[in-house]
Please model this.
Amino acid sequence: MSAAEYAVHGDVAVVTLNNPPVNGLGHALRKGIVEGIERAVADPNVTAVVLIGAGNAFSGGADIREFNTPAAAAEPHLRQVIAIVEGAPKPVVAAIHKVAMGGGLELALGCHYRIAAPAAQLALPEVKLGILPGAGGTQRLPRAIDARAALDMMLSGNPVLSDRAPGGLVDEIAPGADLLQDALAFARRLVAEERPLRKLRDQKVKLEGDAAAFFAEARQRVAKGSRGFPAPPRIVDCVAAAVELPFDEGARVERERYEALVASTESKAMRHAFFAERAAAKIPDVPDTTPTRQIAKVAIIGAGTMGGGIAMAFANAGLPVTLLELKQDALDRGLETIRKNYAATVAKGRLSEPEMAKRMALLSTALAYDAIRDADLVIEAVFEDMGVKESVFRRLDEAMKAGSILATNTSTLDVNRIAAFTRRPQDVIGMHFFSPANVMRLLEVVRGASTSKEVLATVMKVAKTIRKTGVVSGVCDGFIGNRMLEEYLRQAYFLVEEGALPQQVDKALQDWGLAMGPFAMMDMAGQDIGWHVRKRRRAEDPERQIYPAWLDRICELGRFGQKTGKGVYQYPAGSRTPVPDPEIEQLVIGYSKEIGVERRTVGDQQIVERCIYALVNEGAKILEEGIALRASDIDTVYLTGYGFPLYRGGPMFYADTVGLNSVVAAMANYAKGRNGQFWKPATLLARLAAEGKTFN
Ligand code: NAD
Model:
């Protein structure tokens, strides 16, 4: 079967895009479309052409299997294909069902007319990969629909539905169930009515009102709202070019901006992130063919912060969940929190009342293990205490049916020890969710020494079902994310001891692109959590686990962050906005004096380098120890769970873009400073730097 099939139905030619799974516009398909159009044009019996997709889409856009291969660049390019379609002397109709995205929508915009099935998704999502529609989309869309709506579509990258799309995007919604029949009828009608060959390239841009003011406002909005992201300002340039210049000149602007973006580090980082997330689903010794268990019923032990959030994640995906606690009032509190969370989403208009009711109805409660014995998956989210975990896992081992997967949400405890409390360690695994668990995308899937491949494959599949990004981690203190974070935080603590104020550290890292600085983040999570970890680690390894005591002093004051109204920052009247506190500035300055450190000015660059390179160095150790399967998995953890800026591609990718040699050189410099012992490069990092190689 060819990538584009050609058939003639009476007097109308039909070119069917057929490149599963989503008719990606790979080379063979591009060539096939051109051949189809040429054949139709040459056939005197054909009066019109319909372009339609086979299977699940009109077209999902570029064929990502072709990325970075010569085929992607082989002629005809998509721009050439579209020029041929648009230049055809017979009407060409795009018949769109399900999905027309990226290049797929650009192709449809090159057709003279568009008919769509209801609820088809139309989008130009290139912005999400740090690029822009490069096959004329930025020039044709503002000629098809209002330029304001066109700009919004390209800046958000989000789909609009065909039957609710801005006027001009589609000409007709197919009235029947058979899109092809409707498209044929539509094409015949166009011919009978002698409708003109409507070429968007020849149309005027639709923009009402003052163009200059509109673009000035758009540039400002983008500069503020998309700081650091490379594509949005250039998309504005292109739409402005569409307004100001003839089509071909505008297309040249598009071309130039597109190429600059493709070459930019930020866009490379975003594309890296996209592929990294896909790669994370692959486990070398657990092939896709590994059998999985069916997960139809879920139980959760502990209805606290995490248990509640995890329950919501499952209910959101339509799975029934039973929450188990020891006391009824704990269950009542847990359910009430969930109800409030859903109600807040309803109040924001992002969830309907019936949908909320449906999700609440999926939740049930239990006080005894008997009630959950037939759950296929049980996730423990009780207190972070080995004794409590032991009692829970012994009871689970007694109670649960054979084959049920026993997962722990522990953040720091040894999953292998937890597994050893049962007689079925092969069924035990870590599922480390992030708070709030119904929102955060990351799920670290912790593979114990005895975890079976079947259990691992099943849990990775479950991650997908509940729309999480599963990343496999080996067992170690803190797994991938928190183990690295510990070194990052340590540098942040030292920086404050040496002369920076907490708000300066936070601001430098936030300006660099992190969603939040370390101290605001800890205030949000609760300072008591970090305090507890520091105490434990100091006791376990006093030689190495050195932390300045200034933050402990803050904790000793009962300042645990947002929940107590004060932490490193103050939070007036229940607000969540951190406000620097002069009392803490005095405490910090006094502390430095007490330990005999003369405070000095610390530059923002040093703040960023020390915090980020600390992540990189620990990441390298995690990689060489085999805790992470690949460098890009570490990037995915940071991008999906820690607010790392997407356009930096994750810590390991970022280090690659800086150059590992430069990273190691900076570390050597910091090694000469106070607490320099933390700057010994990981063996892997030192080796790659010496060989001029990268992590990725
Ligand atoms: P939490 O204190 O909010 O909730 C714990 C719940 O477990 C409480 O409702 C408690 O009543 C219940 N519980 C205690 N012992 C029990 C038992 N024997 N049987 C049944 N229920 C019992 O704590 P949390 O923040 O939800 O943390 C739970 C787990 O998740 C911990 O292991 C923690 O390390 C981990 N975790 C927490 C976070 C976070 O940000 N809070 C993130 C990831 C993982």
